[in-house]
Amino acid sequence: MPPPPPPPMIRVVDLETTGPAPPAHGVCEIGWQDVAQGADGRWELVGEGGARLVNPGRSMPPITQAIHHILDEQVADAPMWHDVARQALDPWPRRLALAAHRADFEQQFCTPALTRSAEWICTWKCAMRLWPDAPSFSNQVLRYWRKPHGIEHERGLPAHRAFPDAYVTAFHLRDMINLVGVEQLLEWSRQPGLLPRVRFGPDRGKEWHEIEDDSLTKFLGDRDIDVRFTAETELARRQGGGFVGRQTLQDRLL
Question: SUPFAM superfamilies from the entry (predicted)?
Fold first, then answer.
C-alpha cells in the first residue's frame, strides 16, 4: 500500500534586499518557514525553515545595511539569486501558495517564472481584515500585540533578517488560516489593502465610516491604491453594500 500523500503546505518567505525595486536592487537573503495542514484539519508550523545568503550582484547601500546589517563580504561568495530562488520558492508538489507580510514587495523579486506562477497570501492585507483593532499592522507589532501561541521569542530574532521575519509571519498565517481558511485569504490578497483607519490628514486615526462625505470624496483620487480602494469600498457601503471599519467576528461570518 503506497504511503499517504504529504499534507498540503504554504511556504512563508521573507527577503532582505539592497533596495525596494528590481532590477536596480537585488536580493541578499531569503528565509522561509512552512505551514501545513495536519490530520485533524488544523494548520501548524512544520519543519525547521531556513535561510540562505544571496549575492545581489552589487554593493549594499548603507541605508539598507542599517536595516538588515548584512555586509558585502558576507555575500561575496554566496550564490546568485537565479541559482537559489527556484529551490527556495518551489517545494513542488506540496505547495499550495506562497505567503509574505506585504507580499507585493516579495513578488517584485519572486517572479512567476521562479514560482511556477504561484498564488500569494499577503498577511498584511489579511491582518487588516481580521484584526482591525491592532495598533499597527507591521509584522513585529502584530507579534507583540497578538502573542501567538507557541512562538519562541529568540527564534524570531533579530528582526529584519530573513528567517526570523518569515518565522514570525508564519504564526500570523497559521492563525489566519485556522480562522477563515486558505481561499478567503487568497481572495483578500488579490485585492488592494482595506485600511481600517484613515492614515493621514485631518481625519487621521478615524475609522472610515466616521468621516464626512466631503472628506471621503477627496480620498477617491488618491495615488495610493490601498487608500483609493478603501475609500471606494466605503462609498459603496454608504450606497448600500459592503463594509469598511470595525467588524465583530459575527459580522465576518454572516
Answer: Ribonuclease H-like (SSF53098)
